[in-house]
């Protein structure tokens, strides 16, 4: 089904079985005008519920282990959990047969003029990814860009920033491409377009309310994985919430990413604040 929107686990055998069940629920699904099944909405709702529950259980298995045996889960456990969560999301999307096809392609950056929101696990995973892929000089340059972007948005709410989104290119839009594609947040994986012309019109007009046709099922899959992470974090007594990508990166980069990403991960995993360390933007 094509909709219009405003421009914008565990490695146990049971875990594998649940993921296989989710894949079978979307395998061969033809998403487009040909689908008129009256119960498609209920099928999607059931699929979302299963994904959320599976991600919650995966988080409990991975990060809740310290509750059972007294051991501390370190950043490597969190990294693996997020790597698997992205893999689950991408594999489910790969099963879809989309009609009309996505207009999104390499070098098309209209959607990169959005300040997307992400969760703490997504932000920390991105921090680890940057440590693996960028040198000290690159990280220093990124820190300066993050500071400048955050300063431009100072005092503005997420809603206000969203309404003037065309003014704020993503921090990781470099040389006409996404420079963090393997570690991009879930929002970036789920939002899509079937019309490049609509995206172009939205950016050129500066009208954030320009309707853009997209596939709701892809948003649902990404949102379900993200909600599973949020609910799982909350159930474990961990900080659960959203922050704009640029602001999250400013927290991680300020004073040195290597030191910050490890300390932030340790603090968050022990029940401390990550996003909430900064009270005002």
UniProtKB/TrEMBL annotation:
Entry-linked Pfam families: CxxCxxCC
InterPro entries: Puta_zinc/iron-chelating_dom (IPR005358)
Basic residues: compositionally biased ranges: 1-21
Domain of life from the UniProt record: Bacteria
Record region (Disordered): 1-28
Protein name: YkgJ family cysteine cluster protein
Organism taxonomic ancestry: Bacteria, Pseudomonadati, Thermodesulfobacteriota, Desulfovibrionia, Desulfovibrionales
